[in-house]
Structure formats: C-alpha cells, structure tokens
Amino acid sequence: MSLINTAYRFYNRKLLRELDYSIRDPFPFQEETLKHLVSRGKNTVFGKEHGMENMGSIRKFQQQIPLRDYNALEPYIQRMLKGEENVLWDKPPSWFALSSGTSSARSKFIPMNMENLKLCHYKGMLTILSHYVRMFPKSRLFRGKSLVLGGNRHIDKNIETNCCYGDLSAFLTINTPPLARLFTTPSRKIGLIPEFELKTDLVSRQVIKQNVVSFSGVPSWNLLLMRKVLELSGKDNLSELWPHMELYMHGGVSFDPYRVHFQKLFPSDNMHYLETYNASEGFFAFQTDLSDPGMHLLPNVGVFYEFIPLEKLEAAENGTFTQFLTLAEVENDKPYAMVITTNSGLWRYSIGDTVRFTGRNPHKLVITGRTKLFINTFGEELMVENAEKALALTCKETGASVFEYTVAPVFMDTENRGAHQWLVEFEALPPNTADFVEKLDKNLMQVNSDYHAKRMDTGTMDPPQLVLMKKGSFYKWMAQNDKLGGQHKVPRLWNTRQYAEVLLKVNESI
Prior knowledge:
Blueprint (H helix, E strand, L loop, with lengths): L2 H9 L1 H12 L2 H15 L3 H5 L8 H7 L5 H12 L13 E5 L8 E5 L1 H22 L9 E4 L7 E3 L4 E4 L1 H7 L3 H4 L2 E2 L2 H4 L4 H12 L4 E6 L1 H15 L4 H4 L5 E4 L5 H10 L6 E8 L2 E5 L8 E3 L5 E7 L3 H5 L17 E8 L6 E11 L4 E7 L3 E2 L6 E2 H15 L2 E10 L8 E10 L4 H15 L1 H9 L7 E4 L4 H8 L17 H12 L1
Parallel strand pairs: 1-5, 3-6, 3-7, 7-8, 8-9, 19-20
Antiparallel strand pairs: 1-2, 4-5, 9-10, 10-11, 11-15, 12-13, 13-14, 14-15, 16-17, 18-19
Helix pairs in contact: 2-7, 11-12, 12-14, 16-17, 17-18, 19-20
C-alpha cells in the first residue's frame, strides 16, 4: 500500500468505522438521525405548524407530518428564496441546488446548507474513496487527477436576499477544499462554464495533457466527453492515453446500455465501475462490493429514510396511508417509493425514485425507476427496470448496442390495438430489426408478467414498434430544452406521447 493511501485511510478511519458499523446495524444511526432532525426543525415555521415539539417517536412523526412532493413543499421554499429565515431549517440556506427532475419541465430549488454539504454530500464521497482504497490498497487514485464534468447552469444570485442558486456540481466545485483541488480536474474556471459544448471542448483539451485516474458523473454526458478526448488524442483507446485510469463512479441512469461503450474506450483489466446514488437532495448509497449491483444505503449522512410499497403509493399521496416502512421494516425484492427527511429541511419528501432491496444486513438496494416514469396505459405496468433488463438481454442476443432510447404508448382505437413505441438511437444496429423487435417483445414478456398477459392472454397489445432515431437526435432535443450535462437525462418511459411526438419531429429535422 502506498504511503498516501495509508495516510488517507488513517485520516478517514472514523468514516470507515462508521461504515462498518452501519453495515452491521444501520438502525441506531437512523434513530439518532431522526432525533437530530426533529430537534433542529421543532422551532422552525414548519416545525411549529406540525407539532414537532411533542414528537417523541417515529410513528408520531409519521402521523403528524404528511408526505410532500416538491409542489407541496414549494410555498415554504419560496419564502426562503425571499430571504425569510427559520422556515424549514433553523439555519438559513447557503444555496439552492437547481434540479430539473426527469419528469418535470420546471426547475426545482432544493435548499442546501453547510451541514448538508459537509455531512451528506462530501461525507458520502469521502466514504466511497476511503472504502475504495481499502478494497484496492495498491490504487493510484491519489497519484493523478479525478475528472468531474459538471452541469451547464451557472450560479445566479438573488440580489435582494444574497442567496445563490445553480447546479449542485457548481456548489461542490466552489466549496472543494484547496488540498482536494490538487487531485481534481478541470480547473475551477473551466468547470464553472455554463455552456456545455464550450465546456466539453475546453475540458477535453485540458485533460488530454493530464494523468487522469478516475472520473464521475452521468454516463451519457461522460461518454460524449470521452469520445471527444479520444478523437483529440489520436489514440486507439483511452487506456493508451491514461494508462493509470482505474475508476468510473457513475449514477443517474442505468449503466447497462453504456457499459459496452466504456469497455471499448477503456479495454483495461484494471478499470473499475462503481455505482453511486446521489442527487441534489443528498448522497444516499454506493456499491461496497463491485461484483454486487446492490448499493449500501448510508444511514449516517443526515437523511432519515422511509419506503412506501408501490401498491400503496396512491393512498400515500392522498393521505390515507401514512405509516411508511422504515429501514428496519423493508423486505427484499419488493418495489418501494423512497421518501427522505434531510438536514437541509426536506420533510417526508417524495424524491420520486423507486427502489428494490437486494439484501438486508447489510441493506443494499438498486434503483428501479421513477414514480412518474412508467407505462400503464393498458394495464401492463411496465417499469424502467423491466425495460432496461429486456433491452440489455435483447442487445446481448442480437449484438446491437444502444446509445439512447425512450418508450411511449401507442393508443388503441376502433381499428387498432395498443402498443409500445420504442424510439432508439443505436450505436450499433442489429443485423435484423424485425428479429430485434421479436426478441425485445419476448424478453419484455419474460421480465413482466402483466405485459405478457396483455400481449398474449387478452390480445390488448400488439408487438413493440421500433423507430430508428438518427444519430444526434436525442442530443439535439436535450439541447433545445437546455438540458445538456449535469444530472439531466432522457426519460426512459412516459405514460403519454408528450416526449415522443416532439422527438419524432426532431428526428425528421436532422
């Protein structure tokens, strides 16, 4: 083990001890977290409205504070944006992270403060790095640069309240400690450039001269960047340019459609891929075992977690079901909507993600989709996890590879049955598109019994319709909607044709 790795592990030994304790028994951490959050919230406007002063148990907390999505929490956030203090948290927010959300066209202003930044976002990342170095004692992670491609929103300031808002990545960049900046790239000046295409061009020219050993971010945007770097370098692959590259920390979307592309760019046995679960709202989980897709949920980062069984989500949203499951009560292989209460003042906040636990003690989960991203037009209940799995199987069987895709319903009428329309931008086309559709249909029926019933038993649905999208069509659509870079991603499923119709027009224009 190198001296610097030893020093790093020693410096962060408390984080590793906490991680080990949380793996063995996460519940005490969650109990203490909720006590801390309630103690900080009881004297706020929100806390007084909801009787936090007399909130001595988890059940009372659940009874007195209703589930909220962003729309329900927004009136409080608007008061904070106008400069009012002590609204959701007992300290004023330092910043607001802009989060567009996959299923919303409107930006969300997520409050952040120094406690949330240090004890959630930074703590989560430091825990990952400490654990990674423990897993790989010979790692060269601290002998080169870590590349982080941020979003495309610059930081704005409300003149009246002096409060800033912008991409989470921008706030992480400007608050990076001086010592840590020695190990990161691009430079702060380039990293904060709002124009995505200009930024990727400048980043490419900067990193091509550096010893980059790791990178992180959403796969789609990093794939575009890495291909630009490869083109500039003139190399056959990026392992030739960066022989010590060893780690890609990815999140935001399923990595399965992108894995083959990155493996071509980095054909090295020393390259590791590690999934993280982080968002503007917090840093929640990461893979502690790279051979296991399940991510360990962090119970000690200032976030109290609750889980709504998906079949009770509608009841939870209308207020007739409030006793959500805690981490101690979840079961494996059941779908849940995740709810968070955080040290930035988000109270029983529906983050919009659906998860499934793959293990307990340690508690590991996988992200299965979004509460708003599904297709259930004909009773088929297709979720993102089903679509991703079926598509991955189909690509493996046909030799195809996909760059981007989205799925929308085709509604039935008096003459035609319903169907799903798959808008796919292929990286490598299947040899036979009819065979691809047949196999995709078969795999969808295999992973989703409701889809199988609607296809075969009731005759409600026809086989999928495949639309071959032209190269760059999804990128052009994202650019038109100011959604390049950062945590923006293409919605995989949508229960209407809202996105599909626009994408088809974009495709025709190319």
